[in-house]
Design brief:
The chain is α/β, with parallel strands linked by helices. It contains five helices and five strands; from the N terminus they run E-H-E-H-E-H-E-H-E-H. The radius of gyration is 15 Å and the shape is globular. The structure holds adenosine-5'-diphosphate.
Length: 151
């Protein structure tokens, strides 16, 4: 069984995240969208809210499960028996960052492989950071988040 973990903060989930998961569905038997929690990292939305939105977005997809974990992503993958990580790449700075993390995860996660999907041009400007800035500035974020995300 090919299980992939799509880890992130999802603060909040964007249409960019959703698209990556949907494009990866034919590649895996199961995709676990996993919210990594870190006590040092301040988020705009609570873990409960972020999980609730993820559940709502993927409710109709039997291959997608929602989870959360504390600690290292690689350890979470080992624990649940996932041999693949899924990540999206928007640009060269994503690549630089992801390359190092992927190399580390390959060692820490005992041959854990990261599968990268390049984002479509209509998604490469979308990030949770930008969405949070727009929310703080009281702008409408509906073009950037799945319809299930009601802010
Ligand atoms: P992190 O907190 O680790 O940056 P994010 O929640 O921001 O996690 O993102 C999780 C994953 O989704 C990362 O691989 C990131 O590159 C990818 N991603 C985020 N936004 C997009 C997008 N618009 N298009 C494609 N991939 C994206």
């Amino acid at each position: 069984m090919k299980i992939a973990v799509f880890p992130g903060s999802f603060d909040p989930i964007t249409t960019g995240h959703e698209k990556i998961v949907r494009r990866a569905l034919p590649l895996f038997d199961k995709i676990i969208v996993a919210v990594g929690t870190n006590s040092q990292k301040q988020t705009l939305f609570s873990l409960e809210k972020r999980l609730e939105w993820l559940e709502a977005v993927f409710r109709e997809d039997p291959k997608v499960e929602i989870a959360h974990f504390e600690g290292l992503t690689a350890h979470f993958c080992t624990k649940i028996g996932a041999k693949y990580l899924l990540r999206g790449l928007r640009n060269a700075s994503d690549f630089d960052y992801e390359k190092t993390i992927s190399q580390l995860n390959h060692i820490v996660g005992q041959d854990l492989e990261t599968v990268f999907l390049i984002s479509g041009p209509e998604y490469s400007h979308i990030s949770s950071t930008i969405v949070r800035e727009l929310i703080k500035g009281r702008a409408d974020v509906t073009p950037f988040v799945p319809k299930e995300v009601k802010i």
